[in-house]
Amino acid sequence: MKNTYLKISSLILSGALLFTACETDLDINKDPDLLSPDQVPMSAEMPAAETGIAAAAGAYFGLIGGFWSQYWTQSAIANQYKQIDDYTFGTTQSMNNGAWSAMYDALLDVRNIKVISEANNNWNYYLIATTLEVYASQILTDMYGAIPYSEANNAAILNPKFESEEKVYDMMVTDLADALSKDLSESPIENTPGATDFIFGGDMTKWTAFANTLMLKIHLRQSEVRPSVAETGIQGLINSGVAFLNEDAAITQYADEDSKSNPLFETDRRQLNVGTNLRASMTMGSYLNDMEDPRLASFYDGTEFQMQGDYENGSSTSSVVLLTATAPYYFMSLAESKFLQAEADARYMGGANAAALYDAGVTAAFAQTEDDGSALLSGAYAYPAGSLDENIEAIITQKWISLFPGNGFEAFIEHNRTGYPLESAVPQDDATYVSGQFAYSIEGKTDGKFPKRIEIGNDERQRNTNAPAVIDITTAVWYDAN
């Protein structure tokens, strides 16, 4: 892996610099990249770190995840994303290599902030940087498997080692715990995060809650592969009385202008100059339609759905996915926070609070599109008074919907971890197809096996002698016990 990747495309980073120029005293005529790493002001590097992660996750991983969580499918009159939709998305695809390099490029900024902040006992910036580091690394390891972590972005190490998913998870937990243990009141008062923090504006109470909730997610993701580790970690976290995220952790400053808009919109709509590439998947569309869920009109421009992967025979009139230039990028939504807490409570804390947390998650998810879900919450979406499996299915299904459109990679990961939504045994044109069940792509080329990971791209494998052999796209990542 290169120690310094190509800087992330100007489509988002230029937007970050615009916001910074408007809201802070950053001089955008001075390129931080021309300074030595230890001379870059943390306030100048923070916007690049946050928007860089949002760009990598929201554009690259968001597009891939949207296909594999079956929010959308490739248009029958275009071919931009066929390899994602038919599961031949391999080591040579530019989107694969771009996702990897863009995320590690953003981590270069994050880890430089972390080094500087630790050297200066600036625990505010240290907590922010560590939380961002773990957030980005969690996406990488959950999507690729083994990744460089402890040696990544180190100028002295040209070929950083790849570490197993288990080891990366253990290191992420250790790093988050370390950052959360610092006394934030000891940070220098003359150098505090402020407006250049696009997520919380430097509010450290909110960053602490975000870090706690990210820790909860990391523990919970091990529920199937290391259940005792998950249980011990979650019970300890909840019993300690820490606060969890009670609002969206998001960048909301996007503008409907060239190179300044939401990453998914900017990449799929503005830069490609094609507004109809992404069509409504029958998986999500039919489910919302059958449930009479009002969010259907916020997700798609109609009710004509295309079978997943049916880009050879699908209709040119299939409904188009609606994307918005000014939509937030959610590092973690309030809905996701509540669903994480609901599942943790149901699995490991006796379940007394799970229903209320689930209800709060559903309500928050509807609020994202300014829709009213109260009727469904007391009807079709009511928390089941049944088995734990039924509870988990309800939580993950509602989380799946809530992550539309830009966080489909999380829905894909959660589907692989839990098996929800269920996978259909029949094609979507079969009369017995159950709406909302994942369907194998009509044009799928993996013998009926769903994708489970992204293969490590050729760019990394050619640059880093420690890169592992290619692992097939249908091979499960460690957290996937299904």
Key features of this structure:
mainly alpha, 17 helices, two-stranded antiparallel sheet, disordered N terminus, two-stranded antiparallel ribbon, 482 residues
The span between the termini is 31 Å
The secondary structure category is: mainly alpha
Residues in β-strands, percent: under 5%
Q: Count the beta strands.
A: 4
Share of helical residues: 40-55%
Topology:
Blueprint: H1 10-23, H2 42-68, E1 72-74, H3 82-85, H4 94-119, H5 123-144, H6 165-181, H7 204-220, H8 227-239, E2 249-251, H9 263-271, E3 278-280, H10 282-290, H11 296-299, E4 329-332, H12 334-348, H13 354-368, H14 374-377, H15 388-402, H16 408-418, H17 458-463
Antiparallel strand pairs: 1-3, 2-4
Provide a concise account of the structure shown.
The chain is mainly alpha-helical.
Question: If you had to describe this structure to a student in words, what would you say it looks like?
Answer:
This protein is an all-alpha fold and 482 residues long. The chain is 47% helix and 3% strand. It has helices at 10-23, 42-68, 82-85, 94-119, 123-144, 165-181, 204-220, 227-239, 263-271, 282-290, 296-299, 334-348, 354-368, 374-377, 388-402, 408-418, 458-463, and strands at residues 72-74, 249-251, 278-280, 329-332. The chain has a two-stranded antiparallel sheet. 54% of the residues are buried.
